[in-house]
From TrEMBL:
Cited CDD domains: MATE_yoeA_like (cd13138)
PANTHER family reported in the protein's UniProt record: MULTIDRUG RESISTANCE PROTEIN YPNP-RELATED
Any GO MF annotation of the entry: xenobiotic transmembrane transporter activity
Protein's name according to its UniProt entry: MATE family efflux transporter
Localisation: Cell membrane
Membrane topology (UniProt): Multi-pass membrane protein
InterPro entries, per database record: MATE_fam (IPR002528), MdtK-like (IPR048279), Membrane_Transporter-Flippase (IPR052031)
Pfam families registered for this protein in UniProt: MatE
Keywords: Cell membrane, Membrane, Transmembrane, Transmembrane helix, Transport
Transmembrane segments: 20-45, 60-83, 95-117, 137-154, 166-189, 195-216, 254-274, 321-345, 357-378, 413-438
Length: 445
C-alpha cells in the first residue's frame, strides 16, 4: 500500500476522493447484488415458503449486521485520526481492544440468534407456513455471525488507514462464492432457504480467511501486540463514536419497518409497488452512501493532522460531486420510473404504484448528497452523537409523521408518501447547517 495514495492530508482533494470512493462504491454495488442473490435463487429454484423465510430471516440478520457495522465505524474514524497524527501506538491498542470486544459480542449474538430464532420470527409476523423456514435461515446465519462481524471489522480497519481497494476485493470474493454456493445448494441439491443461509455464511467465511491471508502480507501503518488484545482505555474511545451510529442504524431500521406497515395497509399492489421501488431506491442511494463513507475517513485524517480548512473543502467537494450525479438520478426516477420498474416486476398494477412512489421520492437523489456529506464531515470529527440525534429527529419528527398522514388519506398516493423522504432530508440539512455554524462560532471544529 502506497503511503501517498492513502495520505489524504496532501494533494488534490477531488482526485484522491474519487480514487478512494470508487472502490467503496463498487463494494456497495456488490453488497446490494449480494443481498439480492439469495432471494433470486430461492425465487427461481426454491419454494414460496423458502422465499418468505429468506425474506424475513435476512431482514433480521441485516438489522444485526447494520447495527454492528455502525458500531465498527468508530474504528474507522479513530484510526483515521491516529494515522493523521502519526500516533500508531494508540492505533494498535484501539484495534486490539476492538477485536476482543467484537469477539465477545459475536459469541453472545450466536447464542441469542440460535436460541431465540423462533420467537423473533413470530414477532416479525412471518407467515405461519414459513415460520420453520425463517427459523432455519436465522439459526444458520446466526451460527456464522462471527464471520459476518469479522468481515465488517476488517473493512472498517482498512478504510481507516485509507485503503478502500481491499474491501472491494473481499466483497467481490464473497459475492462470487455466494453465487456459486446458492446455485449449487439451491438449484442442484434443492436445499431451499437452508442452502441460501449456508451459502451466505460460507461465502463470508471464505472472504474472511482470504482477507487475513492477504493482510498478513500487507505493510500496515500500525502493530498489534499481544498485550493490546485487552479491554484497555481505547475501548471507550471507539465505542463513544460508534455507539451513536449503531443506535441510529437501529432506529432507522425500525422506522423502515413502520413505513412498510403503513403501506401494507393500502393494498397488495401498493405493497408490491413499494417493494419494487425500494430495490431501485437502494441503487439510487449508492452514490451518497459511498461519499459519506469516504468523507468520514478522508476528513478524519485531516482533522488528525490539524487541517480543518482542507476538511471543509473536502465536504464541499463531496456535496458538489453527489448533487451533480443526483440530478441525473432525479430525472431517471421521476420520468423513467415505470421503465425501470419493469426490470423487477411484470404486474402492471405493481409497476404503476412503484413509479408513483419514485416520483415522490425523486428529489431525495439530490438533497441526500448534501445531507450525507454533512454527516460524513461530522463523523470525521467524531461527532457521531450529533449525527445520530439529527437522524432520529428527521425520522420521528418528519419522515414517519408525513408518511402516516399521507397513508391515512381516503385515497392515499404513494407519490405523496414518497415525499416524506426528501422533506425529512431538507429538515436534516437545516439542522446540520445550524450546527455547523454553531461549531464554527464556538471554534470546536
Amino acid at each position: 500500500m502506497e503511503n501517498t495514495a492513502s495520505d489524504f492530508t496532501e494533494g488534490r482533494i477531488a482526485g484522491k476522493l474519487i480514487r478512494f470512493m470508487l472502490p467503496i462504491l463498487g463494494a456497495l454495488v456488490l453488497q446490494a447484488a449480494y443481498g439480492a442473490v439469495d432471494v433470486l435463487m430461492v425465487g427461481w429454484f426454491g419454494t414460496t415458503e423458502g422465499l418468505s423465510g429468506v425474506s424475513t430471516g435476512s431482514s433480521i440478520i441485516n438489522l444485526v449486521t447494520f447495527v454492528l457495522t455502525g458500531l465498527a465505524t468508530g474504528i474507522t474514524v479513530l484510526l483515521g485520526n491516529f494515522i493523521g497524527s502519526k500516533n500508531t501506538e494508540r492505533a494498535g491498542k484501539m484495534i486490539g481492544s476492538a477485536i476482543l470486544f467484537f469477539l465477545i459480542v459475536g459469541i453472545v449474538l450466536t447464542a441469542a440468534l440460535i436460541i431465540f430464532a423462533e420467537p423473533v420470527a413470530r414477532l416479525m409476523k412471518a407467515p405461519e407456513e414459513a415460520v420453520d423456514n425463517t427459523v432455519s435461515y436465522v439459526r444458520i446465519c446466526g451460527g456464522g455471525i462471527l464471520f459476518i462481524i469479522a468481515y465488517n471489522v476488517i473493512s472498517c480497519i482498512l478504510r481507516g488507514i485509507g485503503n478502500s481497494r481491499l474491501p472491494l476485493i473481499f466483497v467481490a470474493i464473497a459475492c462470487v462464492a455466494n453465487i456459486i454456493g446458492d446455485y449449487t445448494l439451491i438449484a442442484i441439491f434443492h436445499m431451499d432457504e437452508a442452502g441460501a443461509a449456508i451459502a451466505t455464511v460460507g461465502a463470508q467465511a471464505i472472504s474472511v480467511i482470504l482477507s487475513l491471508i492477504i493482510l498478513s502480507k500487507e505493510k500496515l501503518p500500525f502493530r498489534i501486540r499481544r498485550k493490546d488484545l485487552s479491554f484497555n482505555n481505547e475501548l471507550g474511545s471507539f465505542l463513544k463514536i460508534g455507539a451513536p451510529i449503531a443506535l441510529q442504524e437501529l432506529m432507522t431500521q425500525i422506522s423502515f419497518l413502520a413505513l412498510i406497515a403503513f403501506i401494507n395497509n393500502i393494498g397488495l399492489a401498493a405493497s408490491g409497488g413499494y417493494g419494487v421501488a425500494n430495490k431501485i431506491v437502494t441503487f439510487v442511494m449508492l452514490i451518497p452512501s459511498s461519499i459519506m463513507q469516504s468523507l468520514s475517513s478522508f476528513i478524519a485524517q485531516n482533522v488528525g493532522a490539524g487541517k480543518e480548512d482542507r476538511a471543509k473543502k473536502t465536504m464541499i467537494t463531496g456535496m458538489c460531486m453527489g448533487a451533480s450525479i443526483g440530478v441525473i438520478m432525479f430525472f431517471l426516477a421521476f420520468f423513467c420510473g415505470e421503465g425501470i420498474s419493469h426490470i423487477f416486476a411484470t404486474d402492471e398494477g405493481v409497476i404503476v404504484r412503484s413509479a408513483e412512489y419514485l416520483r415522490g421520492f425523486a428529489p431525495e437523489a439530490v438533497v441526500t448528497a448534501i445531507l450525507f456529506s454533512f454527516m460524513g464531515y461530522f463523523s470525521g470529527h467524531g461527532k457521531t452523537l450529533f449525527v445520530m440525534t439529527q437522524s432520529m429527529l428527521q425520522t420521528f419528527l418528519v419522515r414517519l409523521p408525513v408518511a402516516y398522514v399521507m397513508a391515512s388519506q381516503p385515497d392515499p398516493s404513494l407519490a405523496m408518501i414518497g415525499t416524506a423522504a426528501p422533506l425529512a432530508t431538507v429538515f436534516g440539512i437545516f439542522i446540520n447547517v445550524c450546527y455547523y455554524f454553531y461549531c464554527r462560532k464556538k471554534r470546536i471544529i
